[in-house]
Structures are given as structure tokens and as C-alpha cells.
Design goal:
Shape of chain A: elongated
Oligomer: heterodimer
Order of helices and strands of chain A: HHHHHHHHH
Structural class of chain B: alpha+beta
Shape of chain B: elongated
Structural class of chain A: mainly alpha
Helix content of chain B: 40-55%
Radius of gyration of chain A: 22 Å
Radius of gyration of chain B: 62 Å
Number of domains of chain A: 1
Distance between the termini of chain A: 44 Å
Helix content of chain A: over 70%
Number of helices of chain A: 9
Largest sheet of chain A: none
Number of strands of chain A: 0
Largest sheet of chain B: 6 strands, mixed
Largest interface: A-B, 50 and 34 residues
Order of helices and strands of chain B: HHHEEEEEEHHHHHH
Chain lengths: 258, 381
């Protein structure tokens, strides 16, 4: 019993320090990344292309549907209580502050988190990492940092697009069911939209991007040498990312209301 | 624990590194993928640029809408209580929002100080002798707010940072009493009440006119001269009443004859009951036949009782016979059936004898005739 507990604790402490070492390396290399012109830029561009641009259609569709549903439900329900103007607050809170960053993060986890873990795991199995090291290429600098930055930037940009589609695009969808005057809608929306809403949304997406990319790359490198470990680390990356971003979301929301 | 150990490696500067591996892998994805690979930088650039543009656009529009770039004029005022006041509360003039409350604080003399701003577009309305009034809804829901009543002084607007008195204090009330404040008609409560009496009286007048019209209509309907269902009913009632009068006149004549006959019958009955030789008197006479018949030491009763007992016995016998007959009815029916068959056979024999070949042409062929009657024994169960 004590042996088991002691081994478990020792393992946890070792993992914790390993994670700290990994993250510090990532941060250090990220800072250095912008100071030098290197091939990592191309990798980062490709990462933004696959994580950001290719996920745009899914994110936009989700935001349009969500925004339209909120407007239709709000327009039909809230005026019955004399609180018709609350629709704008609800729309901003749901789309911009809460579900925008969160749903975008979920999509990125599903699309890119698993892809990154699998890709890096495969590279470990096929000894590509050792090959990079042998020719003097730092694996974190070349493999992790571009993905880390690419996913984080993509999530930031996708959140902006999610907000645009959810707040503006959904208006045009709503016109098909319950028309609202264009001027009235946008004037009220812009009146109720506060800077803190946008900043909160961007901070959340930035933090979520960091979490997703760090967890995905970390788990990708945890593969020891067997191909059977690759799906396991991919699943673990998804689970951990979901848990961490939900915790982060709760913390940021609480801080923003302090 | 892991396949890679994280030690610091010197990273070479690769200014012209060609990522051939990614290129080769992605080229396998078809034309669309080739296009994306070829124009990856442009696509990503456009993606980033549009997002930044959208964000900037939203922020600029928000700024215009929320007056980030407009100049506001700040003023202060005092109130007796902060109840009903809150930060961000709108300041209105004739229903238009002309500013908002920035902050509320409690002063040393326990009065409430508020700082507020007026939009530059309405700054010229903040003339000297302007006052503020906190209006609260009597039912507590909506309708309240801070209202600015501009002064009648046509001088320059009050400068930034000026003090505007409120109607919570004498200085504000004094300005109103002196007629220096341009109070809106609806601002004065009494005037408001008086104003509201006019429309109310008009509504009452309309109601009275409506009632008059209704009364006329009811009157016409009741007299049957008007139109509508009620008038029709009244006309029908009138016709029915006339017909009923005629019917009653005819009936009354017949009724007189009936009454005369009834009276005569009652007279006869009366004489029958009251006269000394009447039927009832005779029947009730102690020396009469009925008395004699009944007072015979139960002889009549015993005789009747015996007769009834005998009748009862006869009925019992009759019942037994009936039961016996009902039980023997199937046997009788069967017997009758057999008798019928026997008679048929006898008839055939007689006919055979009469058609004897020695005498005539022999026994004729008999055609089977199914019996219409069916006995209980022939029934199929």
C-alpha cells in the first residue's frame, strides 16, 4: 500500500517537473522564435491554414445557427415579460463571452489537437525526432513552437470569426423567420457590446489556444516507441484539453466579473 | 518516461529551409490541396487580415455608437438620498437621453453627490438655472429617471464642471418658484393631473353618448319599432298576445257551459250525500244491510277464507298439470310425428292396394317429401 502510494507520488512529482521543463522550454523557444527568420514560420503558416482556415466553415456554421436560435427564441419569449432589449445582452454573453471561445476550442481540440498528438507521436516512433536532433535542429523550436503559435493564433482568429458570424451573420438568418429592423438591431447590439466582452473573449481564446497546443504537443512527445501508444495519447490529449479549458473558462469568467 | 529528453540544443539559423516533407505529403491531397499549398501564405494572410479588419471595424462602430470619441461635459449635483439613483443612469430631457450618471458618493453632511456627463450634442440645453429632478415611478416599475429641466436664461451654456441644483433642495425649488426653469407641462404633477382630466372627461362624454344610443336602441326594440332580434321578438310577442286574447274569449264561452254542468253535478252529489234517504246515509245506517252482513261473527270472513283456500288448492293442481303437460309435450309431439308417418305409410299401402298390378298398374313411385315439422329429437345439436 505504502509502496504503491510512494511510487505514485514519485511519478506525479516527476511528471510535474517534466511538464514544467517542457513548458519553460516552449516559452523560451517561443520568445526566441520571433527574433530569428527560420523555416518554422512556414510550419506555423501551415498550422494556421489547417487549424484556422480549414475550420472556418464549421465554426461559422455553428455560430450562425447558435446566434439565429438565440435571436428567434429571445424575440419570441422576452417581449412577453417586457424585457425585449435583454436579447442583446443574452446574445453577447452567450456568443461573445461564453460559447464563442468554448465551442471554437472544442472544434480545435477535435480537429487539430488529435492531429498534432498523432503526428508528433508518429515522428517519435519513426525516430524523426532523433534525426532532427542529430542534425542540430531543436525539436521544440522546429516542431512545437510553430504548432503552439499556429493553434493559439488560429483560435484567436476563429473566435473573432465566430463572434462575427454569431452576432452579425445570425441576424440575416433570423430575417427569414422573425424580421427585426437592421438599424435597430445593430444600434442596440453595438450599444450593449462592451470592450470587456471582446477582451474577455480574446483572452479566453488565447488561453485555450495555449492549453490545447501545449497539451497536444506534450502528449505527442510522450510516445515511447510503440505505434499502439499513438491513439492512446491522442485520446488523452483530447480529454486533458477539455478538462483544462473548462477550468480555465470558469476561472477567467470569475475573474472578469470581479 | 518519455522518448525525448529536453535538453537545450543550439538551433541553427535556416534562412532558406525548404520544407520538402510537408510539401510532398500535402501534394497527395488533390488539386484543392495543391492550391492551398501554393497559396498558403496568401490564404493565411487574408484570413488574419480579415479577422483583424472585422475586429477593428466592430471596435470603431462600438466607439461611435458608445460615443468613445465624442466630448462630454461633466457636471455635479446633490440629492437628499441615493435611493433610485445608480451609476450609468440616463439623464433625460423631453424623453431624450442627453447624458448619464458617472458616479455617486456620500458627502460629509450626509447628502448625496452625483457626477454626470452631458453629451456635446445637448450641451447647449444646459443653460443657467437648469435643475435636475429624480422621478421615481409610483408603482416601482420603470418610468423613473433623472430629468433635466433647462433654465429659461438664454445665456451661454454652463461650463464644464459646473454645479446643477436638484429639486431635492431649496435652491432648486426656489428657481422653480421664481419661474426661472423651463418646466415641461407634464413635469408639474398638478398640471399633469389637470391635463389628464380633459381626456378623461372626453372619454366619459363618449361613454355617456354610447349609453344614450344604447338606451334608444333598447327602447326601439322594446316598442317593436326598431330592428334586430329583440324587436322581432317583441313583435312576435304582440301578435301572440292578440291571438291569445281571441282564444281566451272563445274558451270563456265554453267554460261557462262546463261550469254550469259541473255545478249541477255537484248539486246532485250533495243531495245524494246529505239527504236522509241518500245513498251514503243508507249505507251508513246501523240497521242497514251492510251492517248486517259485516256483523255476523266472522261467518262471511270464514266462508270467504275457505273458498280462497279451495281456489288456492285448485290452482296448485292446475300448476302440476301444466308442468306435467309441458314435460310430456315433446313426447306427445314425437307420438304425433310417428302417427303421421304411420298414416303416410298406411296411405301408401292403401294406394298400393288400389294400384295393385293385378287390378291396376301397380304401386306408383313415391317421391320423398321432407317433413316440414321437425321434432325435438331430430334437431341437430
Amino acid at each position: 500500500m505504502f509502496t504503491f502510494l510512494g511510487r505514485w507520488l514519485r511519478q506525479k512529482i516527476k511528471t510535474f517537473f517534466y511538464v514544467c521543463g517542457f513548458l519553460s522550454q516552449v516559452m523560451k523557444e517561443t520568445v526566441r522564435f520571433f527574433g530569428k527568420k527560420q523555416a518554422g514560420y512556414k510550419v506555423m503558416t501551415m498550422q494556421i491554414l489547417f487549424t484556422g482556415v480549414e475550420a472556418l466553415s464549421v465554426v461559422a456554421l455553428l455560430a450562425l445557427a447558435l446566434g439565429a436560435v438565440i435571436i428567434i427564441q429571445g424575440v419570441s419569449l422576452l417581449p412577453q415579460f417586457g424585457q425585449g432589449s435583454l436579447i442583446y445582452n443574452i446574445l453577447i454573453i452567450v456568443i461573445t463571452r461564453e460559447l464563442g471561445p468554448l465551442l471554437t476550442a472544442f472544434i480545435i481540440i477535435a480537429r487539430s489537437g488529435t492531429a498534432i498528438s498523432t503526428e508528433l507521436g508518429n515522428m517519435v516512433v519513426s525516430h524523426e525526432i532523433e534525426a532532427y536532433i542529430s542534425v542540430g535542429i531543436h525539436p521544440i523550436s522546429y516542431l512545437v513552437v510553430p504548432r503552439f503559435l499556429g493553434v493559439t493564433f488560429s483560435l484567436l482568429l476563429l473566435t473573432v470569426y465566430f463572434n462575427m458570424a454569431g452576432l452579425i451573420g445570425s441576424y440575416f438568418i433570423t430575417q427569414l423567420f422573425s424580421p427585426i429592423p437592421l438599424r435597430e438591431y445593430f444600434t442596440n447590439l453595438l450599444y450593449h457590446l462592451r470592450t470587456v466582452d471582446i477582451v474577455s473573449s480574446l483572452i479566453k481564446s488565447f488561453v485555450f489556444g495555449i492549453i490545447i497546443s501545449a497539451v497536444a504537443t506534450f502528449n505527442g512527445f510522450r510516445v515511447e516507441g510503440s505505434t499502439t501508444e499513438i491513439p492512446q495519447v491522442a485520446i488523452r490529449a483530447v480529454g486533458q484539453s477539455l478538462v483544462y479549458i473548462i477550468f480555465a473558462d470558469a476561472i477567467i469568467t470569475m475573474i472578469s466579473y470581479l | 518516461m518519455t522518448g525525448v529528453s529536453w535538453t537545450c540544443f543550439p538551433v541553427p539559423r535556416m534562412t532558406h529551409f525548404h520544407d520538402w516533407k510537408i510539401q510532398v505529403n500535402y501534394e497527395a491531397g488533390g488539386k484543392d490541396m495543391k492550391f492551398k499549398m501554393r497559396f498558403a501564405d496568401q490564404i493565411v494572410g487574408a484570413f488574419v487580415f480579415l479577422a483583424i479588419l472585422a475586429l477593428a471595424g466592430i471596435l470603431i462602430l462600438m466607439g461611435f455608437n458608445q460615443r468613445w470619441f465624442a466630448k462630454d461635459y461633466h457636471y455635479t449635483s446633490r440629492f437628499q438620498t441615493a435611493s433610485g439613483l445608480n451609476t450609468g443612469m440616463a439623464i433625460r430631457l423631453k424623453g431624450f437621453q442627453i447624458g448619464a450618471v458617472d458616479s455617486i458618493s456620500l458627502l460629509e453632511d450626509n447628502t448625496v453627490n452625483i457626477q454626470f456627463h452631458i453629451y456635446d450634442t445637448y450641451w447647449e440645453k444646459v443653460r443657467p438655472h437648469s435643475v435636475l429632478d429624480l422621478v421615481t415611478s409610483p408603482i416601482g416599475i420603470g418610468g423613473g429617471g433623472l430629468i433635466l429641466y433647462p433654465g429659461k436664461n438664454r445665456g451661454e451654456p454652463l461650463p464644464d464642471g459646473s454645479y446643477i441644483p436638484s429639486l431635492d433642495f431649496k435652491e432648486g425649488l426656489q428657481l422653480v418658484e421664481d419661474g426661472l426653469v423651463e418646466m415641461s407641462e407634464k413635469g408639474d404633477k398638478i398640471t399633469g393631473i389637470i391635463d389628464s382630466v380633459g381626456p378623461l372627461l372626453e372619454k366619459v362624454d363618449q361613454a355617456v353618448l354610447s349609453i344614450n344610443g344604447l338606451v334608444d336602441e333598447v327602447r326601439g326594440s322594446l316598442s317593436g319599432t326598431g330592428s334586430g332580434v329583440t324587436a322581432d321578438i317583441m313583435r312576435d310577442v304582440r301578435t301572440m298576445t292578440g291571438e291569445l286574447n281571441v282564444m281566451l274569449a272563445n274558451t270563456s264561452e265554453n267554460l261557462e257551459v262546463v261550469l254550469t254542468d259541473t255545478q249541477a253535478t255537484i248539486g246532485n252529489f250533495k243531495s245524494l250525500t246529505e239527504e236522509p234517504e241518500g245513498l251514503i246515509t243508507t249505507l251508513l245506517n246501523p240497521q242497514g244491510s251492510i251492517r248486517k252482513i259485516l256483523d255476523d261473527d266472522d261467518e262471511l270472513y270464514n266462508s270467504l277464507n275457505n273458498a280462497l283456500t279451495e281456489v288456492n288448492k285448485t290452482l296448485a293442481n292446475l300448476q302440476e298439470i301444466t308442468v306435467y303437460l309441458s314435460n310430456t309435450t315433446p313426447q306427445i309431439a314425437g307420438l304425433l310425428e310417428e302417427s303421421r308417418d304411420t298414416l303416410d305409410k298406411g296411405k301408401e299401402v292403401l294406394e298400393g292396394v288400389s294400384n295393385n298390378p293385378l287390378i291396376r298398374g301397380g304401386i306408383p313411385e313415391v317421391k320423398e317429401q321432407p317433413a316440414t315439422f321437425q321434432s325435438y329429437r331430430d334437431e341437430e345439436f
